[in-house]
Every structure is written in structure tokens, then in C-alpha cells.
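Notes from hallway chat w/ T.B., transcribed later so I don't forget. T.B. wanted the structure written out for a chain they're using in a teaching module, and asked if we could keep both sequence and C-alpha cells in one place. Agreed to drop them here.
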Amino acid sequence: MSDSVLDFYEGLAEEYHLLFADWEQSVDRQGAVLDALLRRSGAPPPRRVLDCACGIGTQALGLAARATRCTPRT
């Protein structure tokens, strides 16, 4: 990643949560949708997920709240 792209995202990181009108609702909604997809796919509990597209954690946090073990890849 070029320095200018990295600098852009590093500068955005502290404000990124402001993209969501309601942070907690977004975390809950995304977790519910992904949990339903995992259940439908037949993934047996306890579920373990590798979060390869790490952003600010809305999906990983939502899944973790539903007892899915999420491991971020940094």
C-alpha cells in the first residue's frame, strides 16, 4: 500500500465510526445477518471466523456478541 493511501486511512480511522448513524445498531444488525448466514451454511457451533477484511470491527463485534469466536487478521 502506498504511503499516501496508508496516510489517508490512518487519518480516517479515528472518525470512521461516524459513518454509521447508530454504531451499536449497525454492529447488531451486521452480526445478526452474518450469524444467520453461518447458521444457514450449516457451520456447527461453536463457530470460529477469521476476519480477513478488518475494518473497524462492526461485523466481528456483532458476531462475537452472538458467541462466534472472531479472529482478526491484521
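Follow-up for T.B.: The longest strand covers residues 48-51. Might be a good example for the class.
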